[in-house]
Amino acid sequence: METLKVYILIANRFYNDGIRSALGLAVENHYGYPVVMNGEFPQMSEYMAENIAWIADMEGEVLSCGADAPTDLPEGVEMTNISLQDLGERMREADVIIPYGLLKQTNEPPPACAE
Amino acid sequence: MKILQVYRSEPNDDVKTLVEILNRDRDADEFKLFSDDPDYDVLVEKIFAADKTVCWW
Amino acid sequence: MAGDPNKLAIFVTSPQNMTHVIGLAEATVKAGKKPMIFFTYKSVHLTKDARFKALADLCGQDDIAICADSYTCEGYDSANDIPDGLSASQMRTQAFHGALLDECGKYIVL
Q1: Contact between A34 and A18 (Cβ < 8 Å)
Q2: Where residue A57 sits, what CATH number does that domain have?
Q3: Does A8 touch chain B (CB under 8 A)?
Q4: What is the pLDDT of residues B1-51, one digit of tens each?
Q5: Which residues constitute the domain of residue C49?
């Protein structure tokens, strides 16, 4: 079975389920690289923190592009900052590129769904 | 390497930058899904002719 | 991708591309190729589209599935409300996405 390098680009806060999708591919022996674009970081639940840590354990990496990753991430959770240019260069080596879900929203989320 | 860039909406600046890097020194093609009445037969033809397809938001 | 060069993986992550999913699947079959489709996360709402059953029939049981966890996360009952056109065996995990990557020579996200 071929091992593939898969980049999952997450541009919308509602779609950081893309991180779970990357973990699913890591379990299938692919390299999963979720990329959080423009500061659309996930709520760092215990579940999300575990997913991110597992991706790293399985030789994947969670990247942050367009905004620096938070500095107060839970222990064992790492995100690597990357510029748009460097992301493009890295993705030249990708087997699959997945722009996941929807684009970033124009308006800030209302309190009803902000958390 | 033949690469096909498919757009579901008008590409923003980030997408344009990434596409420019991905297409560099490659045989690149594109297809606009957001145009009126896209021809899916043509899209299938292009996908199967390409080594890789990226379908942007 | 080293899978079947005549098979197209369609990985659906957005809930607003049903027309494209159907158009592409039908055109793939018309061209003598085979589509293989996986719906995940919020795209599982598309299973409630009136056109979904025909799409499922077009693909066949082995080549279309949805993420059961996503379906549950979105509020549906993955035990008693299996989408029209699917059977319980097509309520899958992210491993089906892995199968798409292994089995298909071509790949697109919608």
Answers
A1: yes
A2: 3.40.1260
A3: no
A4: 999 999 999 999 999 999 999 999 999 999 999 998 999 999 999 999 999
A5: 4-109
